[in-house]
Write a structure and sequence with these properties.
Number of strands of chain B: 11
Shape of chain A: globular
Helix content of chain B: 25-40%
Oligomer: heterodimer
Structural class of chain A: mainly alpha
Order of helices and strands of chain B: HHEHEHEHEHEHHEHEHEEHHEHEH
Largest interface: A-B, 26 and 29 residues
Structural class of chain B: alpha/beta
Strand content of chain A: under 5%
Shape of chain B: globular
Largest sheet of chain B: 11 strands, mixed
Strand content of chain B: 5-15%
Largest sheet of chain A: none
Number of strands of chain A: 0
Number of helices of chain B: 14
Helix content of chain A: over 70%
Radius of gyration of chain A: 24 Å
């Protein structure tokens, strides 16, 4: 054990040796900043959600929260947010799993190449990426033109209805979000897969399992914690998505975050927006709590190694 | 940074002007003169009234490149002529910002670039100073915008049905909101704004309601308008900023849109007339100078507002941005080739609906929230 970890484990034991005091002093500025600029405004938001009444809500404690049930528009927005987020998570997991799997099995050189490619997407802002998708997916755009070749015959025999639209709707939002979320899906799964002892798979093979069986009955179950970790991370992040739906959604696929922004800055319905923000926070915490029953959440987000 | 709020028309005007300057469509001289005319103008004439000991006026505008241009072109000449320093603050005088400033008792703005409806809303809620019409000249305002109590009409613009001629058969020209809602004879996607302004009026006229019956708005009409918008929604893309609306036209993502006439005009020039619009059933809006309650410069600011009523300076504005003069006397001075672009040309005013700003002042916040719920649901 290093002295730092000794100090860390001793921090909460009530003995205030000079060493501990130094530790506290070192983290004090960060804690202070967090309290002042993060916790205080957050507390204010929580408070506003019960004190500022919305004209359409009954004037009782937690009256704003009754809007969740009484306003059909809110139900639609929440439902749409959930559907888009779950779809995004599912697609990102499937695609990400394949990448993580291949990466974990490839050699050192290839691994760093793949990781570089995955991490490179972080260098581009979400704004640029959304506009890039706009260009590729719009009518006459490269991807749209290619997909149209397949779409046309299907439309002619009546299998699909209407013209092919890839942006300004939920399809566009999901494409943009999956793209953004892929690294977040890949990395936790990859970390998990690297820890899997491949000798277990070899053992399964030597005992007569086919390649498929060895994968589905040995590798896949062993990689479940990674899938859950990635799934939770991606789902939680997508819940608060703002830029991508705003650009690729064309104003029709309004999701929760965009609606909160609207209510805060345009319609000035702060009771409503803080209520929704609080509900979102509670929902995220509930998801994390639920996930903690299956995986070690602290480990998942690097709080302990 | 992405714009995280709905862009105001004024903000868009400046953006449009700077774009046109950069692409060489207007000269630097015109850009500068035009930007000056938005706020005040180098052509201004002071009334010679006592300025007291006012040394400084702060104008709140919508920032960006324009703010720098304004400082260079308009603040300096004003200061030279009167000794009063003019400072621009480009942080954006939104409804919420003005409200916050007055509520906190820490008012630093003297005059804000707002619009007729919001000046009415803020004025009713006691956030603005009443206009001093003994200084500001009511006669130099367009009829229909003379009655503003808390704002001075500064320039006009219109929400018009714009259309892409290439999308329709030769000779098929949409002429108003009935055609806008008709996706059979005029196929293609439509664009509406993610903000209620002018949309109830357009939706009501789409049912064939005559222009003179649109106002006064009541609950029944609002519901009717909403049901019309609901019908069109599957074929609609919603825009927020003027630049976005122009993008939709340029990429031909829509065949018709409810756009600001200024952006339609820009596309008209860019596409050699393929994008066009009709003034028929356009909804005529006005920007307005609004003075927050307890402004630091006090009543001296009205003399400054008065100086902006000069018709000549307002012409510069029309030429640079397609923003229509607020002073009806300016219409006669407009050169023939610009008349098509002038929302306040008498011929164009005659077929448009001047917005009922009093109704917006009273009902905007509430009904706009309903509208936003409607397009989000």
């Amino acid at each position: 054990m290093t002295s730092a970890t000794v100090a860390r484990s001793g921090l909460f034991r009530g003995r205030l040796s000079p060493e501990h005091l130094a530790c506290w002093l070192l983290i004090a500025p960060a804690v202070g900043l967090l309290l002042l600029f993060y916790m205080a405004p957050l507390a204010q938001i929580l408070l506003l959600s019960v004190t500022e009444t919305d004209p359409r809500a009954p004037d009782v404690a937690f009256g704003n929260y009754s809007l969740l049930l009484s306003q059909p528009a809110l139900a639609t927005i929440i439902w749409r947010t959930l559907t888009i987020c779950l779809t995004t998570t599912a697609i990102a997991l499937v695609l990400g799993y394949a990448v993580a799997y291949v990466t974990s099995l490839s050699g050192r050189g290839q691994q760093s190449m793949i990781l570089l490619a995955v991490l490179m997407t972080f260098w581009l802002s979400v704004l640029i990426r959304s506009f890039a998708w706009l260009i590729l997916l719009r009518e006459g755009g490269e991807i749209h033109s290619i997909l149209s070749i397949f779409h046309r015959p299907l439309a002619e025999v009546g299998l699909v209805q209407g013209p092919l639209r890839l942006i300004r709707n939920e399809t566009g939002v999901i494409i943009g979000m999956v793209h953004y979320m892929l690294p977040y899906a890949i990395l936790p799964m990859l970390a998990n897969m690297r820890g899997i002892d491949l000798r277990a798979v070899m053992a399964a093979r030597s005992l007569g399992a086919s390649r498929g069986q060895a994968f589905t009955r040995v590798f896949l179950p062993l990689s479940t914690p990674g899938i859950v970790a990635s799934g939770v991370l991606v789902f939680v992040l997508t819940l608060g998505f703002f830029v991508t739906p705003a650009i690729l959604g064309g104003g029709r696929a309004v999701m929760l975050a965009e609606y909160i922004w609207f209510s805060t800055s345009q319609t000035l319905r702060w009771g409503l927006s803080t209520m929704l923000a609080t509900s979102l926070l509670v929902a995220v915490m509930a998801v994390l709590l639920l996930a903690s029953r299956f995986v070690d959440v602290q480990k998942m987000y690097g709080m302990k190694s | 940074m992405m714009k995280t709020r709905i862009q105001s028309f004024h903000e868009d005007t400046i953006e449009l002007a700077v774009e046109r300057y950069r692409s060489g469509k207007i000269s630097r001289r015109l850009l500068i003169a035009g930007l000056g005319a938005i706020g005040a103008t180098p052509l201004f004439v002071t009334s010679g009234r006592a300025q007291g000991d006012v040394r400084q006026i702060v104008m709140a505008n919508w920032g960006g490149d324009s703010s720098r241009a304004m400082e260079e072109t308009w603040c300096r000449p004003y200061t030279e002529a009167t000794g009063i320093e003019v400072i621009t603050d480009g942080s954006g005088p939104s409804l919420g910002q003005i409200r916050n400033m007055v509520e906190s008792g820490n008012v630093i703005w003297d005059v804000c670039d707002a619009n007729a409806g919001s000046s009415e809303a803020l004025g009713r809620a006691d956030y603005l100073e009443e206009v001093d019409y003994s200084v500001v000249d009511r006669e130099k305002l367009l009829e229909g915008f003379r009655g503003l109590r808390w704002g001075v009409s500064n320039y006009l613009y219109s929400f018009v049905p714009a259309f892409d001629r290439r999308a329709f058969d030769e000779g098929a020209t949409p002429n108003g909101w009935v055609d806008f809602w008709n996706i059979v004879d005029f196929p293609g996607m439509r664009a509406l704004r993610q903000e209620m302004d002018a949309h109830l009026e357009a939706a009501l006229m789409s049912t064939g309601m005559p222009i003179e019956d649109v106002y006064p708005l009541d609950r029944e009409k609002i519901e009717l308008a909403f049901s019309q918008i609901r019908k069109l929604r599957p074929h609609t893309i919603f825009w927020r900023t003027g630049a976005e609306s122009q993008q939709l036209m340029r990429n031909r993502e829509v065949t018709m849109g409810l756009f600001w006439n200024t952006r339609a005009a820009a596309m008209h020039q860019e596409t050699d007339g393929a994008w066009d619009w009709t003034w028929n059933q356009g909804i005529l809006y006005s920007g307005a100078w609004a003075v927050p309650r307890g402004n630091p410069a006090g009543p001296a600011v009205w003399d400054f507002v008065r100086s902006m009523q000069q018709p000549e300076s307002q012409l510069v504005l029309l030429e640079a941005f397609s923003n229509a003069p607020a002073n009806p006397a300016a219409a006669a001075l407009v050169p023939e080739e610009l008349k098509k672009f002038n929302a306040t040309d008498p011929d164009n005013v005659a077929v448009q609906l001047p917005v009922d700003w009093a109704w917006y002042g009273e009902n905007y916040a509430e009904v706009n929230a309903e509208y936003l719920d409607l397009i989000a649901e």
